[in-house]
Amino acid sequence: MKNKNRLLIFLGLIVCNNVFADVATSEAQIRGVVEQFRTSIINKDKDVFSNLFLHDNIPFIAVFSEEMLAKKRLENPDYPAAVDFGKFGAPVEMISDTDSQEEKMWNIKVQTDGYLASVHFDYSDHENGKKKAWGTESWSLVKVDTEWKITSVSFTVTEIDHAN
User: CA 27 → CA 39, 122, 147, 157, distances in Å?
Assistant: First the structure.
């Protein structure tokens, strides 16, 4: 009986080790997706950027900060608290053909079981060298065959007022 229990424990450890290795590999792959997202914006590589998403019409939801809403609602009392930019076209349409753009990301946290994943991070958007907005961002991803694809993006937004 002791040998049978030892064998079961040994087999369990092997299975757990393989699961942890798969999760670690998945996390590294997902961090690669984050880096491809970042660099494809800088390089205006619309093909790479488009390929990161499951399809062209994923939810791309901005939630505006109270600070930003207060300013916007002075001009337009009906300014929305959140907008799904995915309803206006594919995410790739947000890459400018003319302006230089960069999304800086930090505090990146990945959770995955090897099939589903979420990524959370802080970000700031920059255009032509100027910081224009900042907030937090969250992605949902799924593994399709061997590739991770973004299925939704949600982010908070506080705009920078460069007029002052």
Answer: 18, 18, 12, 26
